[in-house]
Amino acid sequence: MEAFEPKDFEYPPKKPSLDSVIRQKRRQVALAKEQQAFKVGPHPTEANPKGVAGDENVETTDGDVVAGSDNTGDSSVGTQIVEQEPRYTEMEQKMMDEARDLSLVGHLTELRHRIIIMAIAIVIGSGIAFYYVDVLLALLVGPAGKLYYMRPTEAFFTYMKVAVVGGIILASPVILYQIWRFIVPALTTREKRLTNWIIPVAVMLFAMGIIFSYTLVLPAAVKFFIGFGTDELEALFSIGQYIDFVIAFILPFGLIFELPLVLIIMGYFNLINSMFLKSKRKIFILLSFIIGAAISPTPDMFSQTMIALPMICLYEISVFVLSKMMKK
Of 214, 225, 310, 318, which Cα lies nearest the Cα of 276? Predict the structure, then answer.
């Protein structure tokens, strides 16, 4: 016999893990099913010559119900295990399986991986935008004409700001794809089919908002503000302040143009319908002007109206599309 070694034991004992508990319970259920498949009836006795099982049931210390003894009270002979009821519902079992396959650490690891990819995409996009920063600045300052910079570092930081914003816009498809890849395991089959066209449509609508703002809204806004100049009051725009105005004026239109997509998705899941949107039309018109005043780079009524009008038009387009979807 081997000598007793204290190192062979651990104190205090370790708490069993979730996986070990689940495996033990599954083994118990499998053993009960196996015993049920190969059950043996009671043996004949003097009091029970035909070997008929009694009517009583006995509950074991483990909580398992066994078929009872015969009428003579001999409970040690001919017992059989009745199939146990499932300890977990289907949803609980699914949740435990998912918790085992992908723990919290796994989720955080995947999230870190996605964030790193998005950061790399932004860096690469910013590098490409910085290479063509002169072309981008020429496009942005076109409506205003000649600009100035008042501080030695103002031009440099303006170049960097344009490059970073351009990089984020160029990397937006990659960013949206990584977000989609992170959340898609939790989606149902119907939701997965829906997301297959959401990302392309979202990118297209964002680009349409940027183009619409640059070609129609921005020139009108710059011309409106320059119109206040006189012979004694000449407009001299600083490049830093002008670029801040342009970015704050153009980017909201990219987000505003996502409004139809959001409303259509809500209608797809029967959260809203066209009749609901029609009944809330007056409230939305008021909210569109409030949102326009909140996101406008200037507090004037012109900028507020230029943001609110496209929102109202997109709202009406959403109502029309949802009404067509309801007819189908």
Answer: 318
What would the pLDDT profile of 55-114 be if each residue is shown by its tens digit? 444 444 444 444 444 444 444 444 444 445 556 666 666 666 665 655 666 777 888 899
Cα–Cα nearest to 44, from 35, 36, 53: 53
E strand spans, the chain: 57-59, 65-67, 80-81
pLDDT digits (tens, 9 = 90+) for 177-230: 888 888 877 777 777 777 778 878 888 888 888 888 888 888 888 887 777 777
Residue showing tokens 């089919």: 193
DSSP 12: S
Question: In sequence order, what DSSP letters do the residues of 66-102 get, joined into one string?
Answer: EE---TT--TTSS-EEPPPPPSS-HHHHHHHHHHHHS
As to burial, measured by CB atoms within 10 angstroms (0-12 exposed, 13-18 middle, 19+ buried), residue 153 is: exposed
Q: pLDDT band for 128, please (50, 70, 90 cuts).
A: very high
Residue 144 sits at φ, ψ, to 5 deg, of -95, -20
CA-nearest of 128, 130, 119 to 160 is: 130
CB 245 within 8 A of CB 296: no
